Amino acid sequence: MKDKRKLKLKKFYFHPITVFIFLTFMVMALSGILSIFQTQATYNIVNVNTKDLEPTLITVENLFSFTGLKFIISNAAKNFLSFGPLGMLLLSLIGITVAEGTGFIETFTRRHLRKIPKGTLTFIVIFIATISSLINEVGYAILIPLVALIYFINNRNPILGIVTAFCGVAFSYGVSIFVGSMEVSLMNYTRDAAMLIDDATHISLTSNLIFIIVATIILSIVGTFVIEKIIAPRIGKYKREDEFSKTETYKVINIEEEEQRLIEKDKYEKRGLRSALIASIIVLFIFIYSLIPNLPFSGMLLDMEENAYVNQLFGENSYFQDGFAYLVSLVFILSGIAYGIGSKTIKNDKEIIENANKKFSNIGSMIILIFVVAQFIAVFRKTNIGLIVAAWLASLLEHMSLSGIPLILVSLLLIAVSNFLLTSPASKWMVFSPIMVPMFMQSNISPQFAQIVLRAGDSMTKGFTPLLASFVIYIGYLNIYNLHKEKPFTIRRSLTMIAPYFLIISLTWILLVIGWYIVGIPIGPGVSPTI
After folding, report:
1. CB count in 10 Å sphere of residue 496
2. Cα(105)–Cα(339) distance, rounded to whole angstroms?
3. How far is CA 147 from the centre of its chain?
4. In angstroms, rounded to a whole number, what is the distance separating the alpha carbons of residues 291 and 359?
5. pTM for the complete prediction?
6. Considering only 65-69, 212-216, 513-517, which range has the smallest mean pLDDT?
7. Rg of the Cα atoms in the chain
């Protein structure tokens, strides 16, 4: 009999670096095609002085041309060095690798975090990731590598830790337990747009405070359920390298010597953790003192040119906001060194540097990936395609005769769709607010609630687009911890993994916004969904 078995061809996978290079050329070609057809859009900007709308014409910039190629070549280094995730990631990794190299993170995880139930730890991670958006996108750079490491030490799949941290930051972006940088960036657009209808409109920084606090809790609970019940079983367990090489070995152990060794190890670990705690308290005290204005030598991290304290903390020139990643890294460095000295895991400065260098050596491919992604995102932004699509969607909303719940729902979905190509909430709100806010006010919906719709739509799809700058940290770390290097985590595979989280959290956002509007409870101190 003939062998009728079918030969299976080995499936080929492109590395994300290659895919992003292809995408860059595709965007260049698309910009050339769209420019031939003179693709353009018009959006309105509110003139603060005249209280009138001023139309702004935006056209596609052709990068598939001699001038476009000159731009790409001459700005390659600038695009890479100014790429936000690069600096934040390197700063956070310096601190984490020092703390890991001295044994601080491993000991702390083993002695304290391992006792926490899995579901509780997942909730804590998502909750911290959610409130991290107080300070822009720093949560991606700090939490993704840190949570992956903690999960790895805790004998849980680090891939799951990466997914948990990324989803927590991305799909809950803009909500927290206090007002933060997002309020500062959105408030002026909301106020200017509201003044087109009512000159006396007042928009405060706390106008969404009640809503974002409740949303933080609800999204963290729902996110924990999705991770534990849906995503974790799909990802499965993680086989560490040492588990692949396990063989049966036998050796004679002196019980008394082993007990004495464990007692000494326990004593040194406790002393090291006490030293790390003292160092952390000192650093945090100095850190907090630097955030208090009008005290001797205080206020170092505040922008004292601003009047409002929130603006001093989260304004464009805030030292606290710009230096937060460095400050967190400093806490890890000093705590790690204090632990190493107290536990005697390090003897001199050379050991600290050598240990950190070993832990730092696995991010070479990440740096290359960041370089390629930085070019891709810079090229896409230069074409103006994302801004044009957002302007089209805003214009579509303007030509719809909607009010009440249909207006809220359609606005939410249009913002969510535009977010695939234009990920900055401030840029979207610049385009949508002159249209959305007046429409909401004419439908007896407060401008503050329109701002909630913006933040909900922005968060719904934020983590589901490779145009999000910090997506590179997510996909990069998936491949760092990937055990099957011949089968890398591609963009498609990375998105498929978080698809359940994206769908369920999007539905949660929609129900939360619509439900809040129907119930009508305040969204902030003295602020209601309706006027």
Report:
1. 12
2. 10
3. 13
4. 33
5. 0.92
6. 65-69
7. 26
Question: What are the Cα distances from residue 512, in Å, to 8, 215, 398, 476?
Answer: 48, 8, 24, 33
Q: What is the pLDDT of residue 300?
A: 85
Confidence of residue 302 (pLDDT cuts 50, 70, 90): confident
Q: Is residue 364 domain-resident?
A: yes
The values of phi and psi at residue 44, to 5°, are -100, 145
Residue 78, class by beta-carbon neighbours within 10 Å (0-12 exposed, 13-18 middle, 19+ buried)?
exposed
Would you state the structure tokens that stand for residue 232, as one six-digit string?
């974790």
Letter for the amino acid at 521?
A: I
Instruction: Please report, for the chain, how many H helices and E strands are present, in that order.
Output: 22, 2
Domain hosting residue 42, numbered range: 16-82+116-243+347-519
Whole-number Å distance between alpha carbons of 209 and 201 = 18
For the chain, the average pLDDT equals 90
Structure tokens at 188: 């002026």
Is 96 a member of any domain? no
pLDDT score of 250 more than 60? no
- Report the domain count for the chain: 1
Residue with tokens 């700058």: 469
Backbone angles phi, psi at 276, to 5 degrees: -65, -40
- Residue 345 · residue 279 · CB < 8 Å: no
Q: What is the pLDDT of residues 116-137, one digit of tens each?
A: 999 999 999 999 999 998 887 8
Alpha carbon 179 to chain centroid, angstroms = 17
Check whether 197 has a pLDDT greater than 60: yes
- Percent helix / strand / coil, the chain, rounded to 5: 70, 5, 30
Q: What percent of the chain has pLDDT over 70?
A: 94
Pair of tokens at residue 317: 């020139």
Q: Phi and psi dihedrals of 513, rounded to 5?
A: -70, -50
Is residue 352 a part of any domain in this protein? yes
Strand 52-59 vs strand 40-47: parallel, antiparallel, or unpaired? antiparallel
Is 111 within a domain? Answer: no
Tokens of 71: 């731009």
Q: Return d(Cα 82, Cα 179) in angstroms, integer.
A: 27
What span, in angstroms and rounded, lies between the C-alpha atoms of 490 and 478? 9
Task: Give the whole-angstrom CA distance, residue 84 versus residue 300.
Answer: 23
* CA–CA distances in Å: residue 192 to residues 178, 187, 188: 23, 9, 6
Q: Cβ(300)–Cβ(290) under 8 Å?
A: yes
Total residue length of the chain: 531
Q: What is the 3-state secondary structure (H, E, C) of 415-456?
A: HHHHCCCCCCHHHHHHHHHHHHHHHHHHCCECHHHHHHHHHH
pLDDT average, residue stretch 159-179: 94
Contacts for 157 with CB less than 8 Å, ≥ 6 apart: 151, 232, 235, 236, 237, 238
Contact 83, 370 (CB under 8 A): yes
